[in-house]
Amino acid sequence: THFGFETVAEALKEQKVGAVFSSVASSYDTMNDLMSLGIHRLWKDHFVRNLNPGRNPLTANNSQEKGWSILDIAGGTGDIAFRMLDHASTINNDAYTKVTVADINPDMLAEGRKRALETPYARSSRLNFVEANAEKLDMIPDASVDLYTVAFGIRNFTHKDAAIREAYRVLKPGGVFACLEFSKVNNAAFDAVYKRWSFSAIPLIGQLIAGDRDSYQYLVESIERFPSQTEFRDMIKDAGFMVPGQGWEDLTGGIAAIHKGVKP
Ligand code: SAM
User: 72 C-alpha to center of ligand 1: Å?
Assistant: First the structure.
């Protein structure tokens, strides 16, 4: 607002998003599998493989820095972070890449910490969790991050443009902003089937499995309200990023999309 205060509507939105994720934290993975028929795992695998995190010691001999510094925003249950550390270690033989998982919701972070115990990274300095709002990452210094990721998070932010500006600030020159998010289906017939699934089945599954219809209704509506591929690409450009190619890659006909920007 003009005076720097949050509007009542914005404060309520933040509260509501908080309540939604506290409510879904423990059933989050099961619900993701059910709602996406397991496809979210393939999207996340593709997202991480395509980013190819890690600095291969055999091919990066001119670099003084060991490993990448990765910030996974809205990292919730650690889904993206664990994949990135696995990829850096097994594909790039990189035992130094570090991931900081930041999330605004302590219940989602607690779920992530619990799940980390089942990975080799639980007690290593390569993984840490911080409670933070993506719109104001004061604890992260300027130009300190090689890769900023946000998966299925940004559509919940109240001020998406502020979050993208923060991404720009914390990235090093040459650093990459990468976002995996629900997007707009690009075929009318497929869109009709998809809308029917999302507006009727998802709230129903939410009610039956998680005992919480409203949170899942909110998730479906937030997908509907999120900008189109081109609009979101332009928001990334407006923050100062260079955008490679058309700026995004559609997944499963546009149900989700990966957007990328490079800090010049
Ligand atoms: N990245 C994970 C994944 O792909 O499975 C979790 C995504 S989950 C749908 C969305 C996450 O965004 C929640 O954990 C929620 O707490 C977080 N979130 C919402 N608003 C946020 C904000 N302003 N700053 C940081 N995290 C936020």
Answer: 10
Q: Within a domain: residue 90?
A: yes
Task: Tell me the per-residue pLDDT of 132-189, one tens digit each, with 9 for 90 and over.
Answer: 999 999 999 999 999 999 999 999 999 999 999 999 999 999 999 999 999 999 999 9
Question: Do the bridges between strand 256-262 and strand 171-182 make them parallel or antiparallel, or are there none, so unpaired?
Answer: antiparallel
Distance 96 CA to ligand 1 centre (A): 25
Ligand 1 center to 17 CA (angstroms): 9
Domain housing 122? 38-186+228-262
Ligand 1 lined by 20 (C-beta under 6 Å): no
Write out pLDDT tens, residues 72-86.
Answer: 999 988 999 999 999
Report angle CA 234, 239, 242 to the nearest 5 degrees: 70
Residue 51 near residue 84, CB atoms below 8 Å: yes
Residue 216 lies in a domain: no
Residue nearest to atom 9 of ligand 1 (CA): 152
* 72 Cα nearest atom in ligand 1: 1
The number of distinct structural domains making up the chain is 1
Alpha carbon nearest to ligand 1 atom 16, residue: 105
